[in-house]
């Protein structure tokens, strides 16, 4: 096969390049959740109901799913750096859309485009980080690159709402300024990526494979075990979806707390707990991690429901953190289960399907809760959601734990 490596003129070495990609990964992921504490401001400005908030949020999840399916794998033959650069520029395009198209249709399109950048980014950046680290430190355990990748992914998702809350609480024009600042940041990140070396040989001419969408596959003979893992990923991301889309609304309606920084801090704490839990407990056996996930998910969601019913904001916040810790470990367990079931040659196809199901969990339950808010009180919608997710997560975690024990 004839291949042509990407030009490496003006490139930095693999060690510094690893950190350039990691920081870029973090920044793009952070921008994807910056709008979380800003949703109440959009509601006040345009007068739309909470269900429209969940539609705008769901547009993001749909964008992630579509781009994962259509472009999540193309860096294997187009090149990591090139595809990563496209992902960052697509994210920058979403910032432009937020700045110039401020009505609901424009917000829907902007969130869809932003989601598309994430679908392109995640697999590409994860693969690129692993390859850069392997060349910079060939004798090092691969867990370092995997840990940095996971921290950039979930850490970025955690930082975004906190940054958005800071803009909304302390700086002028919070519906414009964050997008303008991140537009500049993303352009600088794109320029920095031009210095990063390519890590795959890019086929040229007739040797370049024909484009096809990402293949999705359920491991042969393991349909039931895979379904359990996928169900766990779906239910775990449902919790993330609730705190990423409707947490600010619940803070206003249930706790009479319109503080935008608090709204951002709530979402930040949930994602941060998930990220830190994965890093801190990485050396524990899978079965032990799933036990902690089960305890964290069940006790955390019970505290969330109790906090809403009393109402007690402290219980609600503590429950979110504890549930976030459990969800992080549950999702890690779901991925580990899927990897263990898949044939090595089809592992990417299996993981792609898990991620698509997980992001469906991010959107669909949140849409259901948002629609329910038009007919029932917020507390009722939240308690019913918690009950359904609690049952789903408990069943999935218990079954995965049994399989890990075997």
TrEMBL record:
Main localization (coarse): membrane
* Sorted UniProt keywords: Cell membrane, Membrane, Transmembrane, Transmembrane helix, Transport
> Does the record's keyword annotation contain Membrane?
yes
Major facilitator superfamily (MFS) profile domain location, by residue? 16-406
Q: Where in the cell is it found?
A: Cell membrane
Q: Which InterPro entries match?
A: MFS, MFS_dom, MFS_trans_sf, MFS_Transporters
What membrane topology was assigned to this protein in its record?
A: Multi-pass membrane protein
By its UniProt entry, which Pfam families does this protein fall under?
MFS_1
Q: Which residues cross the membrane?
A: 12-31, 51-71, 83-102, 108-130, 142-168, 180-204, 225-255, 261-282, 289-310, 316-339, 351-373, 379-400
Q: Which GO terms describe its cellular component?
A: plasma membrane
Q: Which GO terms describe its molecular function?
A: transmembrane transporter activity
> Which superkingdom is the protein from?
Bacteria
Name the record gives this protein: Major facilitator superfamily (MFS) profile domain-containing protein
């Amino acid at each position: 096969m004839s291949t042509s490596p990407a030009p490496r003129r003006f490139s930095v070495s693999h060690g510094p390049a690893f950190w350039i990609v990691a920081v870029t990964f973090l920044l793009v992921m952070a921008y994807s959740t910056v709008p979380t504490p800003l949703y109440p401001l959009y509601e006040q400005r345009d007068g739309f109901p909470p269900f429209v908030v969940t539609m705008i949020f769901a547009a993001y999840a749909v964008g992630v799913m579509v781009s994962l399916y259509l472009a999540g794998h193309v860096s294997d033959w187009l090149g990591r750096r090139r595809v990563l650069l496209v992902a960052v520029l697509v994210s920058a395009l979403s910032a432009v859309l937020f700045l110039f198209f401020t009505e609901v249709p424009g917000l829907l399109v902007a969130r869809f485009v932003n989601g598309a950048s994430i679908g392109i980014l995640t697999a590409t950046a994860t693969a690129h980080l692993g390859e850069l680290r392997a060349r910079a430190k060939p004798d090092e355990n691969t867990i370092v690159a995997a840990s940095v990748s996971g921290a950039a992914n979930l850490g970025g998702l955690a930082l975004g709402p906190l940054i958005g809350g800071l803009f909304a609480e302390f700086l002028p024009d919070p519906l414009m300024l964050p997008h303008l600042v991140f537009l500049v940041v993303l352009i600088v990140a794109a320029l920095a990526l031009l210095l990063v070396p390519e890590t795959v040989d890019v086929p040229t001419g007739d040797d370049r494979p024909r484009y096809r969408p990402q293949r999705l596959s359920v491991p042969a003979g393991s349909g039931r075990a895979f379904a359990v893992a996928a169900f766990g990923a779906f239910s775990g991301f449902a919790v993330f979806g609730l705190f990423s889309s409707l947490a600010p609304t619940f803070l206003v309606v249930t706790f009479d707390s319109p503080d935008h920084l608090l709204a951002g801090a709530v979402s930040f704490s949930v994602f941060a707990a998930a990220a830190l839990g994965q890093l801190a407990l990485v050396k524990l056996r899978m079965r032990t991690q799933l036990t902690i996930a089960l305890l964290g998910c069940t006790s955390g969601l019970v505290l969330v429901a109790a906090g809403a019913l009393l109402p007690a904001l402290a219980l609600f916040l503590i429950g979110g953190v504890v549930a976030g810790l459990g969800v992080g470990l549950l999702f890690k367990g779901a991925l580990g289960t899927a990897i263990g079931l898949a044939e090595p040659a089809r592992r990417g196809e299996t993981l792609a399907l898990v991620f698509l199901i997980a992001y469906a969990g991010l959107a669909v339950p949140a849409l259901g809760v948002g629609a329910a808010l038009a007919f029932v009180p917020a507390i009722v919608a939240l308690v019913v959601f918690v009950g359904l997710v609690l049952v789903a997560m408990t069943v999935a975690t218990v079954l995965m734990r049994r399989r890990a024990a075997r």
